[in-house]
Fold:
Amino acid sequence: MKKLNIFVDSHVFDDGFQGTTTYLKGLYQELIKNSDKHFFFAAKNIKNLQDIFGLQDNITYLKYASGNKFYRLMIDIPKLVKKHKIDYAHFQYIVPPIKRCKYIVTVHDVLFIDFPDYFPFFNRVKNQFLFKVSAKISDVVLTVSEYSKKQIENHFGINNIHITTNAVSGEFFEAYKKEEIQKEILKKYNISNYLIYVSRWEPRKNHNLILKSFVDLGLYKKYSLVFIGEITFENKEYTTLLNTLDITIKEKIHSFENLKFIEMLKFLRGSQVSMYPSLAEGFGIPPLESVAAGIPTITSNATAMSDFDFLKEYSFNPLNQQEFEEKLLKTLREGDIKVEELRQYLKDKYSWEKSARNYNLALKA
Structure:
Protein backbone atom coordinates (compact mmCIF):
# COMPACT_ATOMS: atom_id res chain seq x y z
CA MET A 1 0.00 0.00 0.00
CA LYS A 2 1.42 3.38 -1.05
CA LYS A 3 2.24 5.79 1.75
CA LEU A 4 0.50 9.15 1.73
CA ASN A 5 3.02 11.94 1.14
CA ILE A 6 2.14 14.92 3.31
CA PHE A 7 3.90 18.27 2.92
CA VAL A 8 3.89 20.58 5.95
CA ASP A 9 4.69 24.26 5.41
CA SER A 10 6.78 24.87 8.53
CA HIS A 11 8.15 28.36 7.84
CA VAL A 12 6.59 29.62 11.12
CA PHE A 13 9.34 27.77 13.00
CA ASP A 14 11.86 30.18 11.47
CA ASP A 15 10.29 33.05 13.45
CA GLY A 16 10.28 31.83 17.06
CA PHE A 17 7.41 30.28 19.02
CA GLN A 18 3.80 31.39 18.63
CA GLY A 19 0.36 29.79 18.53
CA THR A 20 0.84 28.21 15.11
CA THR A 21 4.20 26.66 16.04
CA THR A 22 2.67 25.18 19.20
CA TYR A 23 -0.13 23.72 17.08
CA LEU A 24 2.11 22.24 14.38
CA LYS A 25 4.63 20.90 16.86
CA GLY A 26 2.05 19.15 19.04
CA LEU A 27 -0.06 17.82 16.18
CA TYR A 28 2.77 16.47 14.05
CA GLN A 29 4.80 15.03 16.90
CA GLU A 30 1.77 12.78 17.32
CA LEU A 31 1.09 12.19 13.62
CA ILE A 32 4.65 11.13 12.74
CA LYS A 33 4.16 8.07 14.93
CA ASN A 34 2.01 6.75 12.07
CA SER A 35 4.26 4.87 9.65
CA ASP A 36 1.72 4.72 6.81
CA LYS A 37 2.38 8.38 6.00
CA HIS A 38 5.57 10.14 4.90
CA PHE A 39 5.98 13.71 6.13
CA PHE A 40 7.88 16.46 4.33
CA PHE A 41 8.63 19.41 6.64
CA ALA A 42 9.77 22.56 4.83
CA ALA A 43 11.43 25.70 6.25
CA LYS A 44 14.61 27.76 5.97
CA ASN A 45 16.06 26.47 9.25
CA ILE A 46 16.17 22.70 8.82
CA LYS A 47 18.25 22.15 11.97
CA ASN A 48 15.51 23.71 14.06
CA LEU A 49 12.92 21.33 12.56
CA GLN A 50 15.16 18.34 13.17
CA ASP A 51 15.49 19.30 16.83
CA ILE A 52 11.69 19.39 17.10
CA PHE A 53 10.59 16.35 15.07
CA GLY A 54 13.75 14.22 15.11
CA LEU A 55 15.16 11.86 12.51
CA GLN A 56 13.17 8.84 11.37
CA ASP A 57 12.38 6.92 8.19
CA ASN A 58 9.03 8.60 7.47
CA ILE A 59 10.35 12.19 7.71
CA THR A 60 12.10 14.27 5.04
CA TYR A 61 13.25 17.84 5.64
CA LEU A 62 13.13 20.32 2.76
CA LYS A 63 14.91 23.67 2.74
CA TYR A 64 13.19 26.69 1.22
CA ALA A 65 15.30 28.59 -1.30
CA SER A 66 14.10 31.95 -0.01
CA GLY A 67 12.67 33.48 3.14
CA ASN A 68 10.42 35.72 1.05
CA LYS A 69 6.77 34.71 1.53
CA PHE A 70 5.78 35.48 -2.06
CA TYR A 71 8.63 33.38 -3.47
CA ARG A 72 7.76 30.60 -1.01
CA LEU A 73 4.08 30.50 -2.00
CA MET A 74 4.44 31.13 -5.75
CA ILE A 75 7.62 29.20 -6.60
CA ASP A 76 9.22 27.20 -3.79
CA ILE A 77 6.21 25.21 -2.62
CA PRO A 78 4.75 24.30 -6.05
CA LYS A 79 8.19 23.05 -7.15
CA LEU A 80 8.68 20.96 -3.99
CA VAL A 81 5.16 19.54 -4.17
CA LYS A 82 5.68 18.43 -7.77
CA LYS A 83 9.19 17.07 -7.19
CA HIS A 84 8.24 14.92 -4.20
CA LYS A 85 4.85 13.76 -5.51
CA ILE A 86 2.95 15.19 -2.56
CA ASP A 87 -0.61 13.97 -1.93
CA TYR A 88 -1.63 16.58 0.67
CA ALA A 89 -0.02 19.89 1.62
CA HIS A 90 -0.87 21.51 4.96
CA PHE A 91 -0.82 25.29 5.45
CA GLN A 92 -1.78 27.77 8.14
CA TYR A 93 -4.35 30.34 6.99
CA ILE A 94 -3.04 30.95 3.43
CA VAL A 95 -2.40 28.44 0.63
CA PRO A 96 -0.39 28.85 -2.61
CA PRO A 97 -2.45 29.86 -5.67
CA ILE A 98 -0.80 27.18 -7.83
CA LYS A 99 -2.43 23.93 -6.73
CA ARG A 100 -0.58 20.71 -7.52
CA CYS A 101 -2.01 18.44 -4.82
CA LYS A 102 -4.83 18.36 -2.30
CA TYR A 103 -4.73 21.15 0.27
CA ILE A 104 -5.25 21.10 4.03
CA VAL A 105 -5.61 24.53 5.63
CA THR A 106 -5.93 25.38 9.30
CA VAL A 107 -7.75 28.65 9.90
CA HIS A 108 -7.13 29.28 13.59
CA ASP A 109 -9.48 32.26 13.82
CA VAL A 110 -11.15 35.11 11.96
CA LEU A 111 -10.98 37.58 14.83
CA PHE A 112 -10.15 40.47 12.51
CA ILE A 113 -13.73 40.25 11.18
CA ASP A 114 -15.46 40.16 14.57
CA PHE A 115 -13.09 42.64 16.27
CA PRO A 116 -12.00 45.03 13.50
CA ASP A 117 -10.88 47.74 15.93
CA TYR A 118 -7.96 45.56 17.07
CA PHE A 119 -6.47 45.16 13.58
CA PRO A 120 -5.08 47.58 10.96
CA PHE A 121 -7.40 48.23 8.01
CA PHE A 122 -5.10 46.80 5.32
CA ASN A 123 -4.46 43.70 7.42
CA ARG A 124 -8.23 43.11 7.73
CA VAL A 125 -8.98 43.55 4.04
CA LYS A 126 -6.03 41.42 2.89
CA ASN A 127 -6.68 38.58 5.33
CA GLN A 128 -10.42 38.43 4.74
CA PHE A 129 -9.79 37.88 1.04
CA LEU A 130 -6.84 35.48 1.38
CA PHE A 131 -8.27 33.40 4.24
CA LYS A 132 -11.63 32.96 2.51
CA VAL A 133 -10.13 32.03 -0.86
CA SER A 134 -7.68 29.65 0.82
CA ALA A 135 -10.48 27.90 2.71
CA LYS A 136 -12.67 27.69 -0.39
CA ILE A 137 -10.01 26.02 -2.57
CA SER A 138 -8.76 23.65 0.13
CA ASP A 139 -9.90 20.03 0.29
CA VAL A 140 -9.73 19.85 4.08
CA VAL A 141 -10.43 22.82 6.38
CA LEU A 142 -9.36 22.57 10.02
CA THR A 143 -9.70 24.89 12.99
CA VAL A 144 -8.87 24.74 16.69
CA SER A 145 -12.09 25.38 18.61
CA GLU A 146 -15.86 25.21 18.39
CA TYR A 147 -15.92 29.00 18.67
CA SER A 148 -13.65 29.45 15.62
CA LYS A 149 -15.59 26.82 13.66
CA LYS A 150 -18.85 28.73 14.10
CA GLN A 151 -17.27 32.07 13.16
CA ILE A 152 -15.63 30.65 10.01
CA GLU A 153 -18.90 29.02 8.96
CA ASN A 154 -20.77 32.29 9.50
CA HIS A 155 -18.31 34.55 7.68
CA PHE A 156 -17.05 32.30 4.87
CA GLY A 157 -20.11 30.13 4.25
CA ILE A 158 -18.04 26.96 4.57
CA ASN A 159 -19.34 23.73 6.07
CA ASN A 160 -17.64 20.46 6.96
CA ILE A 161 -14.94 22.13 9.07
CA HIS A 162 -13.03 19.73 11.31
CA ILE A 163 -11.73 20.62 14.79
CA THR A 164 -8.16 19.70 15.68
CA THR A 165 -8.02 21.42 19.03
CA ASN A 166 -4.84 22.70 20.62
CA ALA A 167 -3.38 20.75 23.51
CA VAL A 168 -0.35 21.11 25.75
CA SER A 169 3.04 19.63 24.90
CA GLY A 170 4.69 17.22 27.30
CA GLU A 171 7.50 19.63 28.23
CA PHE A 172 5.08 21.75 30.24
CA PHE A 173 4.11 18.80 32.44
CA GLU A 174 7.72 17.81 33.23
CA ALA A 175 8.90 17.98 36.84
CA TYR A 176 11.32 20.76 37.80
CA LYS A 177 12.78 22.44 40.87
CA LYS A 178 11.31 25.91 41.08
CA GLU A 179 13.97 27.36 43.40
CA GLU A 180 16.75 26.28 41.05
CA ILE A 181 14.95 27.83 38.07
CA GLN A 182 14.46 31.08 40.00
CA LYS A 183 18.13 31.21 40.92
CA GLU A 184 19.07 30.70 37.27
CA ILE A 185 16.72 33.50 36.13
CA LEU A 186 18.11 35.81 38.80
CA LYS A 187 21.70 35.09 37.82
CA LYS A 188 21.14 35.41 34.06
CA TYR A 189 18.57 38.23 33.91
CA ASN A 190 18.69 39.83 37.38
CA ILE A 191 14.91 39.31 37.74
CA SER A 192 13.14 37.75 40.72
CA ASN A 193 9.66 37.46 42.25
CA TYR A 194 7.85 38.23 39.01
CA LEU A 195 4.45 37.98 37.32
CA ILE A 196 4.38 36.83 33.71
CA TYR A 197 2.39 37.27 30.51
CA VAL A 198 3.38 35.13 27.51
CA SER A 199 1.82 36.45 24.31
CA ARG A 200 2.75 38.32 21.18
CA TRP A 201 1.96 42.03 21.15
CA GLU A 202 -1.29 43.26 19.62
CA PRO A 203 -3.91 45.67 21.01
CA ARG A 204 -6.33 42.76 21.57
CA LYS A 205 -3.79 41.05 23.80
CA ASN A 206 -4.54 43.74 26.39
CA HIS A 207 -1.04 44.23 27.86
CA ASN A 208 -2.20 47.66 28.99
CA LEU A 209 -4.62 46.12 31.52
CA ILE A 210 -1.75 44.33 33.25
CA LEU A 211 0.47 47.40 33.28
CA LYS A 212 -2.26 49.67 34.64
CA SER A 213 -3.12 47.23 37.44
CA PHE A 214 0.55 46.64 38.21
CA VAL A 215 0.90 50.37 38.82
CA ASP A 216 -2.49 51.07 40.45
CA LEU A 217 -2.10 48.22 42.95
CA GLY A 218 1.49 49.16 43.75
CA LEU A 219 2.65 45.65 42.87
CA TYR A 220 5.96 47.08 41.65
CA LYS A 221 6.93 47.53 45.31
CA LYS A 222 7.15 43.74 45.71
CA TYR A 223 7.07 42.17 42.24
CA SER A 224 8.60 42.50 38.79
CA LEU A 225 6.64 42.13 35.57
CA VAL A 226 7.77 39.99 32.62
CA PHE A 227 6.29 40.11 29.10
CA ILE A 228 7.43 37.50 26.56
CA GLY A 229 6.42 37.66 22.90
CA GLU A 230 7.07 39.23 19.52
CA ILE A 231 5.48 42.52 18.43
CA THR A 232 2.86 42.09 15.70
CA PHE A 233 0.98 45.39 16.12
CA GLU A 234 1.87 48.18 18.54
CA ASN A 235 -0.32 48.63 21.63
CA LYS A 236 -0.36 52.43 21.77
CA GLU A 237 -2.30 52.55 25.04
CA TYR A 238 0.39 50.45 26.73
CA THR A 239 3.21 52.56 25.27
CA THR A 240 1.56 55.81 26.36
CA LEU A 241 1.13 54.57 29.93
CA LEU A 242 4.66 53.16 30.10
CA ASN A 243 6.15 56.50 29.04
CA THR A 244 4.47 58.27 31.96
CA LEU A 245 5.98 56.00 34.61
CA ASP A 246 8.83 56.83 36.95
CA ILE A 247 12.13 55.14 36.15
CA THR A 248 11.96 53.17 39.41
CA ILE A 249 8.76 51.47 38.18
CA LYS A 250 10.04 51.00 34.63
CA GLU A 251 13.02 49.10 36.03
CA LYS A 252 10.61 46.45 37.33
CA ILE A 253 9.09 45.86 33.87
CA HIS A 254 10.88 43.53 31.44
CA SER A 255 9.97 42.65 27.84
CA PHE A 256 11.60 39.89 25.79
CA GLU A 257 11.29 39.07 22.10
CA ASN A 258 12.72 36.14 20.14
CA LEU A 259 13.42 34.03 23.19
CA LYS A 260 14.12 30.37 22.57
CA PHE A 261 11.41 27.99 23.74
CA ILE A 262 13.48 26.63 26.62
CA GLU A 263 14.13 30.16 27.94
CA MET A 264 10.43 30.98 27.78
CA LEU A 265 9.66 27.77 29.65
CA LYS A 266 12.19 28.61 32.36
CA PHE A 267 10.67 32.06 32.81
CA LEU A 268 7.22 30.50 33.08
CA ARG A 269 8.35 27.92 35.64
CA GLY A 270 10.01 30.56 37.78
CA SER A 271 7.01 32.90 37.89
CA GLN A 272 4.61 33.55 40.77
CA VAL A 273 1.47 34.00 38.66
CA SER A 274 0.73 33.74 34.94
CA MET A 275 -1.86 36.16 33.51
CA TYR A 276 -3.76 36.03 30.21
CA PRO A 277 -6.07 39.06 29.76
CA SER A 278 -6.60 38.73 25.99
CA LEU A 279 -9.78 40.32 24.61
CA ALA A 280 -10.23 37.83 21.79
CA GLU A 281 -8.74 34.44 20.83
CA GLY A 282 -9.48 31.62 18.45
CA PHE A 283 -8.31 29.26 21.19
CA GLY A 284 -5.89 30.74 23.74
CA ILE A 285 -3.30 28.09 24.65
CA PRO A 286 -0.88 29.99 26.99
CA PRO A 287 -3.11 29.73 30.11
CA LEU A 288 -3.33 25.97 29.58
CA GLU A 289 0.46 25.77 29.26
CA SER A 290 0.99 27.69 32.49
CA VAL A 291 -1.50 25.44 34.33
CA ALA A 292 0.37 22.40 32.97
CA ALA A 293 3.62 23.90 34.29
CA GLY A 294 2.08 24.14 37.74
CA ILE A 295 1.85 27.94 37.78
CA PRO A 296 -1.11 29.71 39.44
CA THR A 297 -2.99 31.12 36.45
CA ILE A 298 -5.73 33.65 35.78
CA THR A 299 -7.30 33.99 32.35
CA SER A 300 -9.75 35.98 30.31
CA ASN A 301 -13.17 34.38 29.79
CA ALA A 302 -13.84 36.10 26.44
CA THR A 303 -14.51 34.41 23.07
CA ALA A 304 -12.98 30.90 22.77
CA MET A 305 -11.53 31.09 26.30
CA SER A 306 -15.04 30.75 27.71
CA ASP A 307 -14.61 27.03 26.89
CA PHE A 308 -12.06 26.73 29.71
CA ASP A 309 -14.81 25.92 32.20
CA PHE A 310 -12.41 24.20 34.60
CA LEU A 311 -10.68 27.58 35.08
CA LYS A 312 -13.92 29.45 35.78
CA GLU A 313 -12.86 30.28 39.35
CA TYR A 314 -9.71 31.92 37.93
CA SER A 315 -11.27 33.69 34.95
CA PHE A 316 -12.33 37.30 34.49
CA ASN A 317 -13.89 39.76 32.07
CA PRO A 318 -10.87 41.35 30.29
CA LEU A 319 -12.76 44.63 29.99
CA ASN A 320 -13.26 44.84 33.76
CA GLN A 321 -10.10 46.04 35.51
CA GLN A 322 -11.58 45.61 38.99
CA GLU A 323 -12.50 41.98 38.32
CA PHE A 324 -9.02 41.30 36.93
CA GLU A 325 -7.37 42.86 39.99
CA GLU A 326 -9.55 40.88 42.40
CA LYS A 327 -8.60 37.59 40.69
CA LEU A 328 -4.93 38.56 40.59
CA LEU A 329 -4.73 39.52 44.27
CA LYS A 330 -6.68 36.40 45.30
CA THR A 331 -4.29 34.19 43.32
CA LEU A 332 -1.23 35.93 44.77
CA ARG A 333 -2.59 35.31 48.28
CA GLU A 334 -3.64 31.70 47.81
CA GLY A 335 -0.92 30.46 45.45
CA ASP A 336 -1.18 26.98 43.96
CA ILE A 337 -3.98 25.51 46.08
CA LYS A 338 -5.66 23.66 43.17
CA VAL A 339 -2.82 23.43 40.67
CA GLU A 340 -2.46 19.63 40.71
CA GLU A 341 -6.20 19.13 40.35
CA LEU A 342 -6.30 21.52 37.40
CA ARG A 343 -3.29 19.88 35.74
CA GLN A 344 -4.96 16.47 35.83
CA TYR A 345 -8.19 17.81 34.37
CA LEU A 346 -6.20 19.50 31.63
CA LYS A 347 -4.43 16.25 30.74
CA ASP A 348 -7.72 14.44 30.47
CA LYS A 349 -9.56 17.04 28.38
CA TYR A 350 -6.95 18.24 25.89
CA SER A 351 -4.56 15.89 24.08
CA TRP A 352 -2.68 15.91 20.79
CA GLU A 353 -3.61 12.25 20.38
CA LYS A 354 -7.28 13.26 20.05
CA SER A 355 -6.40 16.04 17.62
CA ALA A 356 -4.31 13.68 15.49
CA ARG A 357 -7.22 11.25 15.39
CA ASN A 358 -9.55 14.03 14.18
CA TYR A 359 -6.96 15.06 11.57
CA ASN A 360 -6.85 11.51 10.17
CA LEU A 361 -10.63 11.32 10.11
CA ALA A 362 -10.77 14.62 8.22
CA LEU A 363 -8.49 13.23 5.50
CA LYS A 364 -10.84 10.27 5.06
CA ALA A 365 -14.05 12.34 5.06
Notes: Residues 41 and 326 are 45 Å apart (CA to CA).
